[in-house]
Specification:
Blueprint: H1 2-26, E1 49-52, E2 61-66, E3 77-82
Antiparallel strand pairs: 1-2, 2-3
Length: 85
């Protein structure tokens, strides 16, 4: 009976960890908002696009960051583009 309680506790802790990680990850994935800094590696899905306004691009432009894939050695793409309207 004791192993059953430990298993339930382990499942509960695992579920809480998954929820916490998904909430933490979602702060980088908000639709039309500009981020203040580039997301850490692993936070963007492959080919997911976010816009970052960190002041590194010239006036009137914003940084477009496209997620890569670390498992397939596809690097993240970063470029300055005209600010979307």
């Amino acid at each position: 009976m004791l192993w059953y309680r430990k298993l339930n506790l382990l499942m509960l802790v695992s579920l809480m960890l998954v929820i916490t990680l998904s909430c933490t990850q979602n702060q980088y994935l908000k639709g039309d908002q500009y981020l203040k800094e580039e997301p850490s590696p692993g936070y963007l899905r492959h080919e997911q696009v976010v816009f970052v306004d960190d002041g590194t691009c010239p006036a009137g432009e914003i940084k477009k960051v496209t997620g890569g894939n670390m498992q397939r050695s596809i690097p993240r793409q970063v470029q300055c583009i005209k600010r979307p309207q």
